[in-house]
Amino acid sequence: MGPPPPSPPQASGDGATSNPTTSGPTTTTTTTTTTSPSPDKPPPAAPPFPPTNRDDNNNHQKSLKAKKKEKPRPWGMASTFKALVSSAKKLAIGDSGSKAALDELFPAVTPEIDGDDCDHDCASCSVSYPKNFKIDEDDELYGFVKGWSTHVLVATGKTDWVRDVADEKGSVMQAIAAQKGPSNGRLMLSASNIPTPHHTSSYSEPTTVLLLPAFVVVENVTPATVPTLIEGLINKAPTNASPLVPVSLPRELEAPLPEASPAAIRELTTRPSPHRALILLCSQKTRDARCGQSAPLLRKELQRHLAPLGLYRDLDDERPGGVGIYFISHVGGHKYSANMMVYRRRDAFGVDGVERAKVGDEKVVLVKNQEEEGEDVGAAQCIWLARVRPEDCEGIVKFTVLQGKVVKPARQLRGGFDRGKGVMSW
């Protein structure tokens, strides 16, 4: 009995014709066929299989391997991801779309005006962060802080607090958080290491509050007088968007407490802050250990540069014309530690317009420029920086604190406001 007759050839999807396997060697031939389109039947779809022609199959496999070896373009993917993150952040903070551009809010230092070394790190810096101090260096910073209208610093005499300061039982922070927000916009609430009047960290005694941008100190504040603080002072205080006009707040304000309350705690009193500028450093290690590590080191380095100028003020020093440095609770963005907020009075030291490249540092004479009584307009600016390191402190004192400029805007500027120009970062 002879071998069975060979089966008819079968067509492959790419026009190749192949014989099935027989007892002899497999052969493959290529034919070209022309098929007239049928009006009743649509043309057959190409099968999802790779070609059966050996050469074509080899080429197909090489193509697949090449695609596997192709690496995604990291720049394009990173840019797309960052754009998505930025859009999400803007949505979360309610970006109005009218914020000032990075180069419009505060002037950046330039060698032509500020000298060739204006953007150099301090070469004599004697302190440094721990080796394991790692932060986010990739995110875009500018314009992603949530806008605020007023800022209250509550004196606690402490440098660390429970995770949410609104949960500090019996505190003024807890009382403020429990109230309806002020009528003039969002209030930023911070606990601070400002000493309490009785030099105790107990919340059973009246304390002091610093109201910004008004630069007004409010004394004799208790949880019971918080409604009066908000309604009688914060609601009437200038905001970050207010024009630079004299602050007009009552010097005394009686809280409507029960008659049985001691007279000594019924009356809130106010006075101007004696400082020309304030530097606020987040120190809350219960939120992030890096904040607890960075704040003391930065204060030490800031003091080193402020003291020779006669501007450093410790916590109990209220001589007029200086710079106060306070530790505050979490302000957000601890992955960009250290966060620093610089509140400045208008032309705080009389050198905002000085061109150091022309006159030289040694000829920059600080003018206290004390405003006459009744002309106190509060803070003109708040410059919010992040990713601050000890070696940045010399430039921050020299240009940011003294002149309202930013040394490294692209890397460090998170936001802020300038009431004189009527601009802000949100």
Written account of the structure:
- With about 425 residues, the chain is α+β, with helices and mostly antiparallel strands.
- It folds into two domains: about 100-140 and about 275-425, no CATH class; about 150-270, Glutaredoxin, CATH 3.40.30.
- The chain is about 20% helix and about 20% strand.
- The protein has helices at about 55-70, 75-95, 100-105, 110-115, 170-180, 225-230, 290-305, 355-360, 395-405, 410, and strands spanning about 10, 15-20, 30, 150-155, 185-190, 205-210, 215-220, 250-255, 265-270, 275-280, 310-315, 325-330, 340-345, 380-385, 415-420, 425.
- Strands 11-12-10-13-14-15-16 form a seven-stranded mixed β-sheet. Strands 5-4-6-7-9-8 form a six-stranded mixed β-sheet, covered by helices on one side.
- A hairpin with a 4-residue loop joins strand 1 and strand 2 (about 15-20).
- This is Actin patches distal protein 1.
- InterPro entries: Aim32/Apd1-like, Thioredoxin-like_sf.
- It comes from Echria macrotheca.
Low-confidence stretches: 8-39, 48-52, 67-75, 369-374
Strands ordered across the widest β-sheet:
11-12-10-13-14-15-16
* Radius of gyration using CA atoms only: 34 Å
State the helical fraction.
Answer: 10-25%
Q: Could you state the order of secondary-structure elements as H and E? A: EEEHHHHEHEEEHEEEHEEEHEHHEE
Give the helix tally. 10
Count up the domains. Answer: 2
Overall strand count: 16
Structural class: alpha+beta
Terminal CA distance reads: 93 Å
Question: In percent, how much strand structure appears in the residues?
Answer: 15-25%
Question: What would you call the shape?
Answer: globular
Task: Tell me, rounded to a whole number, the average pLDDT.
Answer: 84
